[in-house]
Amino acid sequence: MKEYFQLQFRRQIRMIRGFGANPFFGILVGIGVFIWVSFILFKKVSCPQYFYSFICLVMVSTAGEKSRNEFLQTIFTNGKYRITRLLENIIFAIPFFIFLLYKNQLLIGFITILMSSFFSLFNSGTKSSLVIPSPFSKKPYEFTVGFRRTFWLLIILFSVSVISIIYHNFNLGIFCLMGSILVSLTYYTGQEPVFYVWIYSQTPKEYLKGKIKTALRYSFFMSLFIAVPLAVFNPSGIWVILLVMLIGQLYMILIVAGIYANFPVRLNLIQNIQIGISILFPPFLIFSIPNLYSQSLRRLNTLLK
Amino acid sequence: MIRLTELSKSYGDHEVLHGISLSFNKGEIHGIIGENGAGKTTLFKCVCGLEDFTGKVEYDGGVLKNQTGFLPTNPYYLSHMTAMEYLRLLCNARGIVNKNIEKYNLFELPLGQYAETYSTGTQKKLAITGLLLQKNEVFVLDEPFNGVDISSNMMIQDILQKLKKLNKTIILSSHIFSTLQDSCDFLHYLKEGKIKYSLPKGSFETIENEMKNGSLSIDMIESIYSPDPDQIPGNN
To answer: Taking CB atoms and an 8 Å cut-off, how many pairs form between chains A and B?
Structure first.
């Protein structure tokens, strides 16, 4: 078991190296970003301790991925497997726990650790055969697949936006609109396998333009369900709605153009920082979109001719 | 015709393919045979343009990549995507509008189900259906018979013969020598990244004999089970 954790540590070091960073520097940056994001969350979100705990549990649940756990079960005895899962989940939750302690949220901290431990009993990502109808199935795949993964989240966002209209809480409605854009953005956070790019008989330019067009059209369509009712019941806030949608569309271009910037390898540290700055400081999009777009064209050039 | 000239491929210092020169004509079925790790999959990826390489791959029918259907050893399916959507994606990617995909469901697959929930053999059959719907001119099939049931195996062989009659070029690999013997017009024996033999139908025995010469270190198995305490798992 000790060897397993040492191996996991070595894997993380290799991943940091894969990002093009020095491992020591990478760990320091990782810790720094974690603390910075934690502070921002506690500053900007209402009831941050619950949200923070929720984020922790979402991250912990990734350790329960089915195929990974099937592998662990084949190499460990049942007892050692359970202990390994438990330790992994606790290790995941400890940074969140420490920050919650720092923020005097002792009870939530302990509940988070307890829930994380409890999560070690379950596996996620079990293949379901239940086919959820998707409005985007005519043109697979990001939105088709993404919609099926997140439809429950969209239902929640839409319901909350209805509540925001009923209770005249425009800010909550805008939050839901931003949420729907964020959901669309998550459809493009992972790179597809090389095969799914290679199959296209298009030039890199045609391919990227097609991807961006689909992303813009479908994300716009998805946000309309929240934006239209919100605009109808808050006509004075229409400019805010339009501005949020415009920035959302620019973010879509950024993500789709950027995702291939180091293809088929994951984005490197500098590209990630570029995207991060653009999201926090939207005027930077003027520089980052064309830059990442041209990098993506270059990377796709070897696959698409 | 597809012509490979001095095709080589290295991963860092490790050269996987060394100066491969071959040609594949229309209406021919070519089999690539070799041990695990001989470089078959790498060769296929180079032909398809999925890997960069040194040397030349020439095709006299336009852009090879856009007319090639590649069947990977283990076709990868995205989660939450139905088989029908997978086929539609393949058609869309080549600009083919096919409104009757159900009509061409050769293997009678449940197209409304998620493709990733299919069994290994069924996933392979789905991938083959997709390649056919793309109306490819060239088929590069990495172990197309692997994991499929006997009747589908025979059906795939029939499909290959039909494609041959339609003047398509087929390059495939398999570890089942008898299947290759039945299906292929030419067999190329790849050993340590080099083509050792390229033989036409009727003279495949040379390759068969060569492959039988492989030796297995049986003694190694005995030593694994020996009472040597250093080798008992979990004893450290």
So the answer is: 73
Subunit contact A201:B49, Cβ cutoff 8 A: no
- A188 contacts A215 by C-beta, under 8 angstroms: yes
The first and second tokens of residue A92, run together, are: 């995941």
Asked if residue A34 lies in contact with residue A59, where contact means CB atoms within 8 angstroms, the answer is no
C-alpha torsion sign, points A253, A255, A256, A257: positive
Secondary structure letter of residue A288 according to DSSP: H
Q: What is the pLDDT of residue B83?
A: 93
pLDDT tens profile A54-63: 888 888 887 7
Centre a 10 Å sphere on the Cβ of residue A115 and count the other Cβ atoms it contains.
16
3-state class (DSSP) for residue B104: helix
Of residues A95 and A18, more confidence is placed in A95
Q: In which band, very low, low, confident or very high, does the pLDDT at B215 lie, cut at 50, 70 and 90?
A: low
Rounded to an integer, the average pLDDT of A208-234 is 93
Interface check B117 vs A, CB under 8 A: yes
Q: Please indicate whether, in this complex, the C-beta atoms of B65 and A131 are within 8 angstroms of each other.
A: no
- The yes/no answer to whether this complex scores an ipTM above 0.90 is no
> Could A195 and B50 be called an inter-chain contact, meaning their C-beta atoms sit closer than 8 Å?
yes
Both structure tokens of A13? 């070091």
Those residues with Cβ within 8 angstroms of residue A302's Cβ, 6 or more apart along the chain or in another chain? B52
Chain B residues in contact with A144 (beta carbon < 8 A): 80-81, 85
Which residues 6+ apart lie within 8 Å of B60 measured at CB?
Answer: B1
Q: How far is A218 from chain B (nearest CA, A)?
A: 16
Tokens of B47: 């032909």
- Cis omega before residue A264 (within 30°)? yes
Q: Length of chain A in residues, anyone?
A: 305
Q: Which two tokens stand for residue A114?
A: 């307890």
Return residues 173-192 of B near A (CB < 8 Å).
Answer: none
- The mean pLDDT of chain A is 87
Q: How many CB atoms sit inside 10 A of residue A98's CB? A: 13
Vertex B110: Cα angle to B108 and B116 (nearest 5): 120
Amino acid at B111: L
Q: Which chain A residues have any C-beta within 8 angstroms of a chain B C-beta? A: 127-129, 131-132, 137-141, 144-145, 148-149, 192-196, 198-201, 302-303, 305
> What is the SS3 assignment for A116?
helix
| pTM flag (> 0.90) | no
Residues B108-129: tens digit of each pLDDT: 999 999 998 898 889 999 999 9
Q: By CA distance, what is A300's nearest residue in B? A: B50
Kindly report the three-state secondary structure assignment for every residue of A247-277: HHHHHHHHHHHHCCCCCCCCCCHHHHHHHHH
Written as one string, the DSSP assignment of A38-99 is HHHHHHHSSSHHHHHHHHHHHHHHGGGBHHHHHHHHHHS-HHHHHHHHHHHHHHHHHHHHHH
Sign of the dihedral through C-alpha A121, A125, A126, A130? positive
> Which of A3, A143, A199, A298 is the best mutation test for B, with the most CBs of B within 10 A?
A199
Give pLDDT, residue B164. Answer: 95
